[in-house]
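Could you join me in thinking about how sequence relates to backbone shape in a protein? We need material for that, and I hope you will provide a protein of your own picking. Once you have written the record down, we can walk along the chain together:

…
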Amino acid sequence: MNRRTKIVVLGCALLLTAGAAASATASDAPRQREAAALTGTAELYRSAGDDITFTFDAHLAAKDKGDPLKATGTFEWSHYLGDDGGWAKAKVDCLVTGGKVAVVSGVVTDTNLPGSKGTRVGITVHDLGRHDRLGYSWATTEGLGPKDLPKCVSSAPFEKVEKGTGDFTVVPWNPPL
């Protein structure tokens, strides 16, 4: 091996070693868990064959552990029976979880349901593995819910998800008490 080849080989070895060390340091660093979360998609069961889907991507950052009103993300749902139905998407404005139960609320930002844009809605999820349950504020309020519905308000999770579709995940909130 000539001198030039030795320098190139040594240089490559140093780069590989440095890269591996940097990679190990970055991936081995402990990652801080978010304070709370609700994620996943599931279909609701209806014997009439309704196509009802709920999807969540709601998070409370670790730095905001003491304030569930700083939650971020979106959630959406659709409900169709044949050609009739509608859909809506909401921006999260509150997320509270306790154990495997989450309550999320948000304001409707996009929808095809007349008069619904700008209303606040709340949804409750019980994470039971593949047998999750769900409830929503408009089950106990008129229409999609009043414009003055408070943040983080919903109903008990009375609906069952379609068998095999329940994949909601709730990250429990541990507020500083």
Summary: Strands lie at 36-43, 51-60, 72-81, 84-98, 101-111, 120-126, 133-136, 159-160, 169-171. The radius of gyration is 23 Å.
